[in-house]
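Hello forum,

I keep getting stuck at the same step: I have a sequence, I want structure tokens, and every attempt I make locally crashes halfway through. Rather than fight my setup again tonight, could one of you with a working pipeline run this one for me? It's a single chain of 174 residues.
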Amino acid sequence: MNTKAHERIGVYPGTFDPITLGHADIIRRSAKLVDRLIIGVTTNPSKDPMFSTEERLAMVEREVAALNLTNVEVTSFNALLVKFARKLGATVLIRGLRAVADFEYEYQMAGMNQQLDPMIETVFLMADVSLQPIASKLVKEIALFGGDIGPFVSEAVLRDVSARVELSGRLGDY
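Reply #2:
Ran it on my machine without issues. Output:
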């Protein structure tokens, strides 16, 4: 791990299944707050992913490249978030918020993370008002029922999700 002295490293973790315009908004804004932002693509045992970790990693890398941010890296991890952040030398965890329900969960997680490592701070960013209703879970549901997800994801992600839904052939079978 090569880190410059006093370099502020932030981690924005998520499943990104799929990455949405809301995620891109948080990435763009987070990149301004730290010297180096690491997007951590992870798995969540309580979620049923549409895309594999490798597919999500490639999708996020492509979307981040389109943002033209020089201080953002993308990697995958399958570990306790605080351990992952500590290994990278990160002192900031970035979490996006859409609604009060997000806050309750994220507040609890921030408290647990603080107990695990008090040197790592959690920073909450509110999604842009126009993007607040967007959630990956809802994007997948809309797509599976034949709805238009164009307003919620990039053109490339729209193609990825549409292809996956088409491959599945039926609701719930991806």
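The domain at 9-129 is CATH 3.40.50.620 (Rossmann fold). If your local run keeps crashing, start a new thread with the error log.
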